[in-house]
Amino acid sequence: MQTPSKLTLNSPQELVEIVEGCVRENYTLRSEGYVCNSCSAQIEWVLADVLLHTQLFPDCSEGGRVHQIHIPYCPNCELAPSDRGCIHLPGIV
Ligand SMILES: [Zn+2]
Hints:
- By secondary structure, this protein is α/β, with parallel strands linked by helices.
- Helix content is 16%, strand content 39%.
- It has one helix and six strands.
- It is elongated, with a radius of gyration of 14 Å.
- Residues 36, 38-39, 41, 74, 76-77 line the site of zinc ion.
């Protein structure tokens, strides 16, 4: 999957659920780790810095805080996800 950028969510927990949902749908857990459902390659993970900030400033210029999350991807079927992204949350973060 790709690192979310400018994605509006209600809470950082939703990001974890999105990643878990992607893993359930696209990858299968084997003894050696997760593998791709399409090509059986071993899944790789990128540790991404996702900036959480308020959607009150939609141009992403306001600080916010960084949440680190591992983003999974298949090295054959997907481009490597960015190590940076951002999530927009309601109210002040
Ligand atoms: Zn694949």
